[in-house]
Write a structure and sequence with these properties.
Length: about 200
């Protein structure tokens, strides 16, 4: 079984992936932020590095999904391959940070790769407002994230909400990250676990 957690930068995906992995004994797959050779450069000069970053993420997530399908294990994944294609890349293009040639090339790559993978059995979406995202980004203190623009976060949030509103690839669970502080409050985590239990009962 493949469970994936989606959400904007700072929504709490990695933390929730860790917590649910520990609770259920699932195999966690994390986004390789620390190993990404483009991320620091991207936040310093988005227009120069946008295409490189998106292709790197696409390749990384495609490889992860193939490994998940081949493992035969129940896996929980931090972020999906769809978020890059439906949210991050189009947002960069609309903001003028990726040109048409690079965007079309990226979309062509994604369409080819997406034919070879299947959607998660359950998608968990962490829905958070921009103030919550900013607070959590500041709390984790990654230096390169100090350059993230507020309009960039807001545009991503709008795209996330539009994507989730039309999501039809499998089961979907929406978690209100503004009002459930699962990082600090065990009772809030229990609420999320109860919701996940209700969703996965029909998957096994």
């Amino acid at each position: 079984m493949h469970i994936a957690i989606a959400g904007n930068i700072g929504a709490g995906k990695t933390t929730l992936t860790q917590m649910l992995s520990f609770h259920y004994g699932w195999d966690p797959h994390f986004e390789d932020v620390d190993e990404n050779p483009y991320l620091v450069d991207f936040y310093e000069d988005m227009k120069r590095w946008a295409f490189n970053l998106q292709v790197y993420f696409l390749n990384s997530r495609f490889s992860s999904v193939l490994k998940i399908h081949q493992s035969g294990m129940t896996v929980i994944q931090d972020r999906t391959i769809y978020e890059d294609a439906y949210i991050f890349a189009p947002n960069l293009f609309d903001m003028g940070l990726m040109n048409r040639r690079d965007f079309d090339n990226y979309v062509s790559l994604f369409e080819l790769m997406s034919q070879l993978v299947k959607a998660p059995d359950l998608l968990i979406y962490l829905k958070a407002s921009v103030p919550t995202l900013v607070r959590q980004i500041q709390f984790r203190g990654r230096e390169y994230e100090n350059n993230i623009r507020l309009d960039y976060l807001k545009n991503l949030n709008d795209r996330y909400n539009d994507w989730i509103d039309s999501y039809d690839k499998g089961k979907l669970l929406i978690i209100d990250a503004d009002n459930l502080d699962f990082m600090k409050n065990k009772s809030d985590l229990s609420i999320i676990i109860d919701k996940v239990d209700a969703q996965i009962n029909g998957l096994f």
